[in-house]
Each structure stands twice: as C-alpha cells, then as structure tokens.
What we know:
Elements: H1 5-13, E1 28-29, E2 51-58, E3 73-77, E4 80-82, E5 84-88, E6 101-102, E7 108-109, E8 115-121, H2 127-142, E9 147-158, E10 161-163, E11 169-171, H3 172-181, H4 188-191, H5 195-212, E12 220-225, H6 239-258, E13 261-266, H7 278-281, H8 300-306, E14 311-312, H9 318-330, E15 333-337, E16 348-355, E17 361-363, E18 367-369, H10 388-395, E19 405-413, E20 418-426, E21 433-434, E22 440-443, E23 445-451, E24 457-463, E25 466-469, E26 481-489, E27 496-502, E28 508-512, H11 515-521
Helix pairs in contact: 1-5, 1-6, 2-9, 5-6
Amino acid sequence: MCVSKRLLQPLGLALFCLILRVPAHAQLSPPPSDESSREPNPVLKVTSNLVILDVVATDKSGRGVTDLKKEDFTVFESGVKQSISAFESPAAQPPIAAAPMRDRNGNPSWGEAPITIVVLDQLNTPLEEIAYGREQLFKYLQAQPTQLPGPISLVVLNDRGIQDATPATRDRDALLAIARHQHVGLPFRLNRGATDEMLPESFALLRQIALSTRGDHGRKNVIWIGRGFPGLDPTVLDPHDQETFLNAVRDTVNMLLDARATLSKIDPRTNLVSSLDSQDLTGVVAPGIPDDPFATSFSFNTFISQTGGKSFMYMNNLAREIQEGVSQGSNYYTISYVPTDPAEDGKYRKLTVVVNRPGISVRAKQGFYAGKTKGEPTLEPSDRQLGFDMLQAAASGMQYNGVGIQLGDKTWNEKSGKLVVKVRIDTSTLSFDQTASGAEQTTFLVSMAALNEKGKLLTFKTTRPTVEIPAGQTRQISTGHTTVPAVLMLPQAAKAVRVIVRDSSGRIGTVDLDPTYLAGLALHLPPPNAKHRRG
C-alpha cells in the first residue's frame, strides 16, 4: 500500500516537542481555602512503573464472571511471572454518583467510575451504515432507565474531524437530546478513497480520547460504532519514516494504557461473511514476529486486541451489541503489579493474563512499550508546527482534564487587540524533576487558541515556561498552584478562546474563556482584514 508524506507528517508530529522557548517567572501559591468539601486530587507520580490492567472475564456463553479471586489470576510480562500487588473485583467497585463531583480545580470528575465513550464513526463508514448505527444507538438509549447505569459520552468523527464531543453523563434524556441534534456528515473522503486522510484523523481521535481523560482515574470503555480506520503496512516506508510512524503508534499504545482505555468496535454491516476482508487482513501479525505487533502491520483490529477490547461482528442487533459492550466494559477486575524488569529500553512487553478456572476467558491489554524508543526524531519545529496534540486539543471541542487549570485575571488592550490571561495551574498534576540544589523544576507548554463560529482555528500562540520550587517549599507541590500568563492577539472573527496546558509527561488540560466575556470584546476587536499570525 502506497503511503504519502501527507499521512506521515501528522502522525509523526504527535511525537515532536513543538514549542517556543520563552522565559517565565512564577511563584507557588497556597491552595484555595474552600476545597475541603471537594474531591481530593491525588498526586500523580509519573515516574512510577506500576502497571494497571483492567480484566474482563466471561464464561463459554459470553456472560460476565464476577466471583474470581486474586489467587485465580496469574500475570506474565514477556513470559516472566509477575507478583500481583493490588487486586479489585467488580463487586468492590464503589457506587457511581448520579452526577460528577468537582475536583479542586472546579472540573467535573467521576472519580474511579468507569466511563463509556461512544464514537459514531462517520468518516470510515458508508452513509447507510451510519444511519443504521445511529438508529441503533437511539434504540439502546431509549431502552435504558432515565438514570443510566454509568456515565456515557458521545463523540462524532466525520470528514471535518472530531465533532460534537459531549461531557459524560448519566442523564439518559439529556444524552438522547444531544444525540438527536448531532451533525450527520456525509463520508466524502471514504467515497473518493482518501485513506491517507482518513487514517490520521481516526488515529488522532484515539490519541485525544486517551489525553482528554487522563484526569479521570477509572476505566474508559470506548465503543466505536463504524468500520474503523484503514490499515497499512509500515514495512513499505523508508527507514526514517517507518521509525517516525512506529514511534507515534507506540506512544499512542502507552497513552491508552496510562488512561486505562479499552477499544471495542461494533461493525454496523449486516451482510458480513465469516472471513477477514482486506482491511482486517492488515491486522494479522505474521508468524515468527511476536515481539512487536505493529512492526509489520497496523490496523484498527490490532488496536482492539492490544487494548483488551472486543470486535462485535456478524450480528444484526446493534442495540444489543452496544448493551453488551457497555455492560462488559463496566464489570471488570483491576490488577496491578510492578514489573520485575525495570529497564526502560523502548521494547515491547507482551502481557498475558491467565485464569486457573476452566471455561473462563479473559480480555485485557496485551502489551506496552517500556520507556522511550530509540531513534525518536528530534526536529526543530517551525512556528506553525506547534504540536499535533496541542492543536487537536485546541480545536476538538473535547474537555481535557489531565492537568488541572483555572483562569484568573484577564486584561485586553483595545488598541493592539492583545489578550493576556493569567493561567492558574495545579502543581500536583505537573511532573517535576529535582535539581542539584534540591529544588523541584518543571517545564510545560501553555497555549491559547482562538476559533471562529464553526470551530475552525484562527490563531494559536504557545510558550514554554519553566517553574522552579525552592527546596524548602517542595512539600507544597501536592496542594499548591502556580500562575503563568497566556497571550494572544484576538482576530474579530473569534467566537471562542481556549487555553491548553501540556505537561512534560504528555498530560493535557484545557479551559475555555467565558463566552460572555468574549462577547463583550466583540465590538472592539480588530477588523477581519487585520493580519494575525500563529505565534
């Protein structure tokens, strides 16, 4: 299969540190005084190599099995038995709240509750199947109680990219109302065979789901209604492009593992035959190459199996398949262990979960990559290439909670059109490194983006502040905040402004400017013919 540079560029950009280095001065501020009634926000130790596996167990009839114990499970990493350090059964999962709590940054949080994310794939799926899948989603929702068993979010992927992302909710009627008004896009790219455009758009959504939900600590059950992205053979690429592409894939696999995200597909085709089509064949790993499943093949089905998901096919009742996918994704065992091999060599670690009870099948993530891969490209970016994930976070409409942020004071210069916003960042969600003096230091990206009424990106500015906490104050990191400025020249067509913060570990947080504040500036913004370059 011929792969164009247009495909490789956006996938490779996801790995590059595309930033502008500018100095910044910030001080650690004390935590707010009104947080005692809010959910605690645990400190994330990104240097920990703890592996968390969510395991679904079923019997021969496909029914869930929920009475297994810790001693029934054995975990192997690359053939080496691991010691299970923590175990939680489905029965031990806490009750799910009727509505999300608010964390200490004011963001909605479902805590440890599993979240189902339903993707309506209108990019890779023919129109008649899109209509059928949408109809069956409505049928599933209408059969549910008014308070859904667990929170569900809807996302549409079409020719325009990621659209109509909704916050997770247990309110069935609210979700139905949103679903009815979601845009139905025609699959023009599919009709003209633009696979080099469809693959990066679909791949981007997987990355953004993982990134946007890092702040939610429970499992993410992604139910993809549609055919999924087309596959490709990475061996046809030249060595440099192949390494760039595979690094992006490996990075995304680890993102999904870190976010506890599992991908399942519900194929809306009703006339499938029980044989693999050409798209599915790309996901079959060649015999004799067991180490890295993506080295010789790349397909949607590979991602399904690697994340511990399931492909629902050859069935005519999509509503029942959605029900099964949601139910299985919400009833799972959680197993944690610390690998016996701590080496971060970028190699693939194959995971195997075994149950000692006859007749029981289990599904869990099948592997991950240990640390950074060798040969990862380090290219100096242009000002227009500010990072694939950051740009996606700016324009996708999804809410990202991996980094806790709030907006403070705002100042706007009417003459120049410059907007300055103070961004208050939760230091417990940032990654710090210790300096020789005993201080803790972190460097992160802060971006501000303006979008028009159609959600199209108009202008985008990124800075890279470095914050250092003196040795005597480092204990405050878990409860403190730091404040840095974000600056943007606003064009008159701006209808929305979003601030994005990206931690060095890859976690992202977003917050949107109050629309009423922006509306108050609309009469004073520079005219449309004024030029605003992406900074």
